[in-house]
Design a protein that fits this description.
Strand order of the largest sheet: 1-2
Number of helices: 13
CATH topology of the largest domain: Arc Repressor Mutant, subunit A
Radius of gyration: 36 Å
Oligomer: single chain
Distance between the termini: 129 Å
Helix content: 55-70%
Largest sheet: 2 strands, antiparallel
CATH class of the largest domain: Mainly Alpha
CATH superfamily of the largest domain: Winged helix-like DNA-binding domain superfamily/Winged helix DNA-binding domain
Number of strands: 4
Shape: elongated
Number of domains: 2
Length: about 300
C-alpha cells in the first residue's frame, strides 16, 4: 500500500477594490499628530489618552499648556502666569471696591498670584472647562483668605458693626432724625442690653489708620491723610491754623447734635481729660456703660462729618 502525497493548497491573493486603492492614494503620506483640545476619553495602544490643552485657546497658548501639563515645564508655567496675570488684576480690582482705601490694590494682586499658580496646577483640561472660569473663584478666594488671615478682628464683630451701621442709616432716612437706642435695638430684633453688649465689643476694635484720606479745606475738595492733620509743635503755619479752626467749628456743630449724655461724655473725656471710670462716677453709671455711650457718640460724629464731606 503506497502513501499518496498531497500538495498544500496555494493561498489565493485577492486584489483590493479599485475604489479603495483610489482612496488610499488620495491620503497624504505623513501628517503631524494633533493634540486633543476638547474632552475625550479613549484608549490609544492600551493607555488612556490625556488631554493637556483646554478648549478655546489658540495654537501658541495650546503649546504652552501642552508643555506644562504634559512635560511639567517650568518655563511654560512662567509664561502661563504672565499670560493670565491680567486676570488677577481684574479680580483684585473687583475685590478692592468693597475694602477701605488703606488696603493697597498691589497687595491684593500679590495675594491673587498665589491663587493663580494654584489654579494652574490643579486645573484639568480634560473636563472641558475654560481656564478663566475655573481660575477666577480661586484667585478671589486666595485674596479673601489672605485678608482674613491678616485681620485681627473676629468676623462676627465686623458683621455686627455693619448691621448696626445699616440699621442706623435706614432709621435715620425713614425718621428724618437721629434714631434712639431703643429704635435701633427694635430694628435689629434684639434687646437694649444686647445692643449695649455689641457696642462694647465694637468699641474695642475701632482702629483709625494714619494713612486714611480725609477731606479738608473750604470746599472740602483737598484731601490729606490723618497723619498730616496731627499737630506739629515746631511750626506755626497760618493756613494750617485756619483749617484747624474750621475743623473745630465743624466738630463743635456735630457735638451739639448729640444727646445731652453723649455730649457730656465727649466733653469730659476729650476736653477735660477725665478717664471713663471718672466719668462713670460723675454720671452714676458703670465704666462699661460710659464706654458704650462714648462709642455711640463717636459713631454719630463720624457720620455727621462724613455728610459734610
Amino acid at each position: 500500500m503506497t502513501a499518496t502525497k498531497t500538495k498544500p493548497a496555494k493561498a489565493t491573493k485577492t486584489k483590493p477594490a479599485a475604489g479603495a486603492v483610489a482612496r488610499a492614494k488620495a491620503l497624504p503620506r505623513s501628517a503631524a499628530p494633533v493634540r486633543a483640545k476638547a474632552p475625550a476619553k479613549g484608549k490609544a495602544n492600551g493607555k488612556v489618552a490625556v488631554v493637556t490643552v483646554p478648549p478655546q485657546v489658540d495654537d501658541e497658548l495650546g503649546r504652552l499648556w501642552d508643555s506644562f501639563k504634559g512635560d511639567e515645564s517650568d518655563a511654560a508655567r512662567e509664561k502661563l502666569i504672565l499670560h493670565y496675570a491680567p486676570l488677577v488684576k481684574y479680580v483684585a480690582s473687583r475685590v478692592a471696591t468693597g475694602l477701605p482705601s488703606s488696603v493697597e490694590q498691589a497687595d491684593l494682586v500679590s495675594y491673587g498670584v498665589f491663587g493663580l499658580i494654584d489654579a494652574l496646577h490643579k486645573f484639568e483640561p480634560g473636563r472641558g472647562n475654560k481656564f478663566e472660569t475655573y481660575a477666577i473663584p480661586r484667585i478671589r478666594g486666595a485674596i479673601i483668605d489672605e485678608l482674613r488671615a491678616m485681620d485681627w478682628v473676629p468676623r462676627s464683630v465686623r458683621f455686627k458693626a455693619r448691621e448696626i451701621e445699616k440699621a442706623h442709616a435706614a432709621l435715620e432716612t425713614n425718621l428724618k432724625r437721629e434714631p434712639t437706642e431703643k429704635e435701633v435695638a427694635k430694628h435689629l430684633g434684639m434687646s437694649l442690653v444686647e445692643l449695649h453688649d455689641v457696642i462694647t465689643q465694637i468699641s474695642f476694635v475701632s482702629v483709625l489708620a494714619l494713612d486714611e484720606v480725609i477731606s479738608v479745606g473750604g470746599d472740602r475738595s483737598e484731601t490729606v491723610t490723618v497723619l498730616d492733620t496731627l499737630a506739629d509743635m515746631g511750626t506755626g503755619d497760618l493756613a494750617s491754623g485756619m483749617e484747624g479752626q474750621e475743623t473745630r467749628v465743624l466738630l463743635a456743630t456735630a457735638i451739639n447734635s448729640l444727646s445731652e449724655r453723649e455730649k457730656l461724655v465727649v466733653t469730659l473725656y476729650y476736653f477735660e481729660g477725665l478717664t471713663l471710670a471718672e466719668i462713670g462716677g460723675i454720671l452714676g453709671v458703670t465704666e462699661s456703660r460710659v464706654c458704650q455711650i462714648h462709642t455711640k457718640a463717636v459713631g454719630s460724629l463720624r457720620g455727621h462729618l462724613t455728610e459734610r464731606d
